[in-house]
Design goal:
By secondary structure, the chain is an alpha+beta fold. 26% of the residues lie in helices and 35% in strands. The chain has a domain at 66-186. A 7-stranded antiparallel sheet has the order 1-2-3-7-6-5-4, sandwiched between helices. The longest helix is centred in the last third of the chain and has 15 residues, at 172-186. The two termini are 27 Å apart.
């Protein structure tokens, strides 16, 4: 049995969209659990009101769990092309305000066998303030950056990763609007 499926942490938490059509929890392979060493997390799929297919991964690491560094360096732009998808574009990090939280989200668009696939990836580090896009973009995800933070007295306060994927939006602005609607239901 793997880590808990219930993900919560201040200042924001994840509520699984269990009332959405075709909602289904997806298993996390044991190898992934071992590799990521998260404390809480899971995956799910569902269909939104506009009949788009969504997939979500959400993981949380309590303070002191170093596997979070692995997640920072294994993002969609690295992993998905290795699985055969073609990345068409990516954006830098942008803060998205959702129910009082500021989430640093990177956006990606892939070609999935001729279908557009938008991936929204959020890695949130409890030490970071995320006051604006520039501060979020300046996060140093390297081992050196983590050492610098330690030297500056910034304790490891835990981390979380939230990734949402949606298929079928041809227009990037439509996909972004759909993301914001889904996040409003998910992030508390």
């Amino acid at each position: 049995s793997g880590p808990s499926q219930n993900v919560s942490s201040a200042p924001w938490s994840v509520t699984w969209p269990e009332s959405e059509p075709d909602f289904r929890r997806e298993p996390i392979p044991e190898m992934v659990e071992t590799l990521l060493r998260y404390n809480e997390g899971g995956a799910a799929t569902w269909r939104s009101a506009d009949d788009r297919r969504w997939m979500m991964y959400s993981f949380r690491w309590l303070p002191g769990r170093t596997a979070a560094l692995f997640v920072k360096n294994h993002r969609p732009d690295i992993c998905l092309p290795a699985s055969g998808l073609t990345m068409e574009q990516q954006s830098g990090v942008h803060l998205v305000a959702v129910n009082g939280a500021k989430l640093p989200i990177r956006s990606y668009r892939f070609d999935d066998s001729g279908r557009p696939l938008h991936i929204y990836y959020c890695y949130w580090d409890g030490r970071s303030s995320y006051v604006d896009d520039a501060a979020a973009a300046a996060e140093d995800w390297t081992a050196r950056g983590r050492l610098r933070a330690a030297w500056q007295g910034k304790r490891e306060l835990g981390a979380r990763m939230l990734e949402l994927a949606v298929w079928g939006h041809e227009d990037d602005a439509e996909a972004r609007a759909a993301l914001e609607r889904e996040l409003a239901k998910i992030v508390r």
